[in-house]
Amino acid sequence: MKLLFKQRFFSWFDSYDIYNEFGETVYTVKGVLSWGHCLKIYDSANREVGMLKEQVLTFLPKFHMFLYGNEIGTINKEFTFFRPKFYLNCNGWEVEGDLFEWDYSVKDGSQLIMTASKKLWNLTDTYEIDVIQPENALVALMIVLAIDAAKCGKN
């Protein structure tokens, strides 16, 4: 399953539209005024299905992930020198990025869960997400949102 993650051009808070490979909007992400990043994810029927909330006052970025109002775990950026790395404590998945922080892969041991690639030459942040199993799409989206928020916080 492929998702295209595209930030809206004119948006006071973080706001994104998420499309499937057919160009249909499957999720909408809206930023909420809060201390740290708080992103709410809505399905195509405008029901809240997920939320990503940044924990403030931490040395490295940490985000709490919620599905349907229940916390499913956190994603933490790990300290590394060259390649960015994140740890998901909800299922033991590991997230690794390339040196330029444009391409990411998520694995469960040696099994590939998803890849995300930042598309260059766009006016807004745009990622292509390739999820192996569709039931992991929402968690995959939260991972990419957390990475993008961590990068924005760094800049």
TrEMBL record:
It comes from Lachnoclostridium phytofermentans (strain ATCC 700394 / DSM 18823 / ISDg) (Clostridium phytofermentans). It comes from the Bacteria. InterPro entries: LOR, LOR_sf, Tubby-like_C. SUPFAM superfamilies: Tubby C-terminal domain-like. Belongs to the LOR family. This is YxjI. Pfam families: LOR.
